[in-house]
Amino acid sequence: MRDTKNNKIVVFGAINMDLVVETSRLAGPGETAEGERFYTTPGGKGGNQAVAAARLTPNEERVLMVGRIGDDVFGAQLRSYMESQGVNTRYVQTEVGQSSGIAAIFIDREGQNYVNPVYGANARCDEWQTQDAIEAMKKAAALLVQQEIPLAPTFEAMWAAREKGVTVILDPAPARILPKGFLESVDVITPNQTEAEALSGIEVKSPSDALNAARAIRKLGPSTVIVTLGNKGAYVEADDFSGHVPAFDVPVAASVAAGDAFNGALAVAMGEDMPLRNAVVFGCAAGAVCVSQQGSQQSMAAREEVESLLSGGRR
To answer: Which domains can be identified in the chain, with CATH numbers?
Structure first.
């Protein structure tokens, strides 16, 4: 195992406050459908992945978050919560006069989620955040990025990571038109079924479809493609492992942030030099714990929960 003092994880991405409505069904056009529960929870794909990673490592402030929040009450709450979970927020800038990002999330009876974000301060990430990410990557093992903030500063940070020998892990969500060379700067990409279809042009309904999509995506640049399949697990295509990894069987409370739980756990596992298949199993276990609980960042797994599930304690 590597010395974790020299093995930091940097997350560059969006930090949102999630406004969650649980409802038996979504309202149609011009219709009112009463919901059953409302709550707020810290979220954003970047923030989620940072907390997911921090909860899985015993080293305080091993995980560094890079991004922007607004100078509103949500911004203060978002920073405070990440810090309480062991995330280093030194590189989280407060944008004066801007609102923090929010996401309106509707969760139906089956636990499926429907998300409408307003990115606020996140949308103002620029070269300052790129420079922060580069500075934060000193002695880092991995850079976790997504596609919620502007792509230009993300792209620059990814190339800088490659030059430093830092593993770049991309969650390609939400789907966007990517600049030329963007995927060539990625080491590991983790699309879900919808994102895999958008990237490959291949409809993904089964692990065999995921195999074909993963091979097509790999030709675009990433050396490792992991197509996440929800309750069907994940399909992995890489030099050192190719195959299907089954999901864990757990009761689903909400599918919000399951992919973020997976990515945060994957970065931790790879930083601990787990073989790729074992790292993906570790990520699937973290995702399973996440979907069995309510919330976004608050649903992220603790290390003991993942290890219990891996040992059969919560299968």
So the answer is: 4-25+38-310 (3.40.1190.20)
**Dihedral (CA of 79, 257, 299, 277) sign:** negative
For residue 142, is pLDDT > 70? yes
Instruction: Determine the 3-state secondary structure of 95 from DSSP.
Output: strand
pLDDT in tens, 268-292: 999 999 999 999 999 999 999 998 8
231-235 CB contacts, 8 Å cutoff, 24+ apart: 232/206, 232/207, 233/207, 233/284, 234/262, 234/280, 234/283, 234/284, 235/207, 235/210, 235/211
Q: Which residues are catalytic?
A: 260
Residue 312 tokens read as 């059969």
Give the per-residue pLDDT at 6: 60
Chain centroid offset of residue 298 CA: 14
Structure tokens belonging to residue 152: 């230009």
233 contacts: CB under 8 Å, gap ≥ 6: 207, 244, 245, 246, 247, 284
